[in-house]
Amino acid sequence: MNKLLTKIFGFSSANPLYTAAGPTAANYELLKKAVEGGVGGIVTKTISVKPARVPIPNIYSTSPGSLINTELWSEYSYKQFIDEELPKIKSLGVPVILSLGYTPDDMTKLGEYLRNNYDFDAVEFSIHYVSKDITNITDIAASIKQNITVPVIAKFSPSISDIPGLVKALDPIVDGFAGINSVGPTFDFDIETLKPYMGSTDGRGWLSGRAILPIGLHFVSSIAANTSKPVFGVGGVRTAEDVIKYLMAGASAVQICSHAIINGPKVYEKINTNLLKWMDKKGYDSLDELIGLMKNFRREELNYLAEAPILKPIWISDNCNLCKSCATVCTHEAITFDSKKLIIDYNTCVSCGLCTTTCPHDALEFSTITI
Ligand SMILES: Cc1cc2nc3c(=O)[nH]c(=O)nc-3n(C[C@H](O)[C@H](O)[C@H](O)COP(=O)(O)O)c2cc1C
Fold it and tell me: Looking at 281-363, which runs of residues are DSSP E strands?
């Protein structure tokens, strides 16, 4: 039995990892490498009615694991991509989701071209470069639905403020959701040359990768709480733990972009191996058991500073190697070391919890204490 078997929109993949629309999904040659690297399914680079005129430079590594980009959409003409690349991509033998952009008119034109049944499994439309007005977005969805019979997925931009409102408006039209696209606009530049790292007119670009994982999780859990339709988690996935988080937040599968750009197409296999190991260790037989465990999370009992129960970090001496990183991150200087002993001043400690999450050795645990 394949524990990673993933079913979404009625089609199956060997695992829950899909490429996300981006440079690793630009054409057949690159997608072939992704499939060889273990990806379960494909979302292609977005095509639109006009090929993109892509400014250079357009990808910058802003911090480990995170990128800023202004790569726009595909520089292929839609006819070239659909007629020449898509059949070869489909021959790779995994589910193929075609990403389309952007306006209602674009969708009508693309839909009319695609109507004569090219072989693909679903369509994803990106609401990245269009007005975030709900009526405009439902118009885009309705335009693509006019001509397309395969499932249609709405990919959320993180600039959407009313997530439940947009989900409810789109729910009667689309077949599922994906979230999120890259975050921005953002700005970064070289202080010596005064040149932005992005070649766009205003030097702005869009943030992706590690830094945006918590934003993606917020979107996915909020989308999943407002629909019973399938959701793809996108944004910051680098590890099996990240995949598990997206599934628990309510996603049925995930898409990966930045991590595969930075580390190459072998990343999928490594994540799948670690995902399987974790499931075996925890006794899970299928990914379905994880989906949605956190989507309706609401804390029932809040704890407050200086009110019972008193929660504080507790030192687990057996795990500690006296690296003192906890003392460094404690802004309030509540942690000191006396010879080989860690001392926490519980009167100074404000119970923020940071030391317990940054300790590299799990030597601090947040727990109830009696003073
Ligand atoms: C260089 C680059 C190009 C991208 N191009 C597209 C695109 O054409 N269409 C789209 O919907 N999203 C595009 N994205 C956004 C990704 O599909 C994804 O939503 C986002 O990067 C978050 O995932 P990640 O953190 O795994 O990169 C692009 C991202 C990057 C980094």
Answer: 311-315, 335-338, 341-344
- Identify whether residues 213 and 327 lie together within a single domain: no
Measured in angstroms, how far is the CA atom of residue 154 from the centroid of ligand 1? 14
Give the count of domains, the chain: 2
DSSP 307: S
Q: What are phi and psi of 142, to 5 degrees?
A: -65, -35
pLDDT by residue for the chain (371 residues), tens digit each?
A: 899 999 999 999 999 999 999 999 999 999 999 999 999 999 999 999 999 999 999 999 999 999 999 999 999 999 999 999 999 999 999 999 999 999 999 999 999 999 976 789 999 999 998 999 999 999 999 999 999 999 999 999 999 999 999 999 999 999 999 999 999 999 999 999 999 999 999 999 999 999 999 999 999 999 999 999 999 999 999 999 999 999 999 999 999 999 999 999 999 999 999 999 999 999 999 999 999 999 999 999 999 998 999 999 999 999 999 999 999 999 999 999 998 899 999 999 999 999 999 999 999 999 999 86
Buried b (16+ CB within 10 A) or exposed e, 165-183: ebbebbbebbbbbbbbbbb
pTM over the 0.70 mark: yes
Is there a single domain that holds both residue 324 and residue 214? no
Q: How far is the CA of 109 from the centre of ligand 1 (A)?
A: 23
Nearest CA to ligand 1 atom 12: 21
Centre of ligand 1 from the C-alpha of residue 209, in Å? 9
Binding site membership of 236 for ligand 1 (Cβ less than 6 Å) = yes
β-strands 231-234, 253-256 pairing: parallel
Ligand 1 atom 10 nearest Cα: 21
Ligand 1 atom with the shortest distance to the CA of 67: 31
Q: Is residue 216 lining ligand 1, measured as CB closer than 6 Å? A: no
Ligand 1 atom, smallest distance to 213 CA? 25
**Residue 263 sits in a domain of what CATH number?**
3.20.20.70
Instruction: Report yes or no on 300 lying in a domain.
Output: no
The answer to the question of residue 302 being in a domain is no
Is 306 domain-assigned? no
